[in-house]
Each structure stands twice: as structure tokens, then as C-alpha cells.
Amino acid sequence: MKKWILSVVFALFSLTAFAAVDINTATKDELQTLSGIGPEKAQAIIDYRAQHGPFKTVDDLQGVKGIGEKTLEKLGDSVTVSGGTKGTAKKESQPRADTARSTSKEEKKK
């Protein structure tokens, strides 16, 4: 039984080790798992993302202080930008508060 559990844990760890990190949603700790990214560069990525919005491409990382072509080469296929627009879509789809209030007033008149 222990061997089976260890095998499952190892398999799950292996899968997460090879999964690409989404630079638009990754935490500081997740970013630090990337080759060439330490605490300072991870924080710089988060700060850049907060100021400029989601990255559109991995190459946009070159706009972050301390990240250049060599760092991008080290990162290879370990990064992705596939989740950056999800937050924006959610914000746009929420109804405005004043619209919701006017609708409820109209319903009260009926």
C-alpha cells in the first residue's frame, strides 16, 4: 500500500514539475520555480503585471527589469500566458449596480 501511495505522489509531483507556469496568474512562489527567476525577478514580474495588465505573449517578459533574451531562453516552454484575459472577462460581464437598482424600482411600480 505504501508503495502505491508513493507512486501516486511521485506521479503527481512529476506532472506539476513539467506543467507550464502561467505568468499572468502565478504567485511569487510559483514564479520562483522557473529557471533563472529568483525572489526579486518574481516580484518584478508581479509588479509589472499589476501596472501594465496581463502579458499578451511570453516575449512581453522582456519589458520586466532584469529579464532579457537569455532569461527567456532559460524559461523555454516552462511558461505560458494562457489565463490573462479571464479576469477581464469576468469584470465586463458583471451587471452595473445602477442598472440593477433601476430594474428593481421598475418592478416595484408594476
Label this structure with key terms.
110 residues, mainly alpha, DNA polymerase, domain 1, 6 helices, 4% strand, disordered C terminus
Word description of this protein:
- The protein has six helices and two strands, in the order αβαααβαα.
- It has a single domain, classed as DNA polymerase, domain 1.
- The protein has 110 residues and is mainly alpha-helical.
- Mean pLDDT is 74; it is low at 11-16 and 84-108.
- Strands 1-2 form a two-stranded parallel ribbon.
- The protein has helices at 2-18, 28-31, 39-52, 69-75, 86-93, 97-109; strands spanning 21-22, 79-80.
What are the SSEs and their pairings?
Elements: H1 2-18, E1 21-22, H2 28-31, H3 39-52, H4 69-75, E2 79-80, H5 86-93, H6 97-109
Parallel strand pairs: 1-2
Query: Which second-level CATH architecture applies?
Result: Orthogonal Bundle
Q: Which sequence of SSEs, written as H and E, runs from N to C?
A: HEHHHEHH
Provide the CATH superfamily: Photosystem II 12 kDa extrinsic protein
Subunit organisation of the chains: single chain
The assigned structural class equals mainly alpha
> Class in CATH?
Mainly Alpha
Any idea what the radius of gyration is? Answer: 21 Å
The averaged pLDDT comes out at: 74
Q: How many discrete structural domains?
A: 1
Strand content: under 5%
Name the shape in a single word.
elongated
